[in-house]
Amino acid sequence: MAADTDGTALGYEQARDELIEVVRRLEAGGTTLEESLALWERGEELAGVCRHWLEGARARLDAALAGPGTADAEPEPDED
């Protein structure tokens, strides 16, 4: 899990919402070059956080789909 600049972990939704705000501010313009660069860097960081969460979710789904005990599988009889 990626950390926020304050050292607290960001959840996917938090990172996504902040990324949306960063993009909105960049698209609106009116910021200095330095502010725009800082926003861009923050956006890249937030995109990485989102990517990390999505890759983790994909890995969990893949593991669940590949594992035994899918919905279509019949339970194996006990050998006791």
Explain this structure.
With 80 residues, this protein is mostly helical. Helices cover 64% and strands 0% of the residues. The radius of gyration is 20 Å and the shape is rod-shaped.
Topology:
Elements: H1 12-28, H2 33-66
Ends: how far apart?
Answer: 43 Å
Cα Rg: 20 Å
Q: Segments where pLDDT lies below 50 for 5+ residues? A: none
Topology as a string of helices (H) and strands (E)? HH
Number of strands: 0
Shape: rod-shaped
The gist of it:
Helices cover 64% and strands 0% of the residues. By secondary structure, the protein is mainly alpha-helical.
List its traits.
single chain, 80 residues, mainly alpha, 2 helices
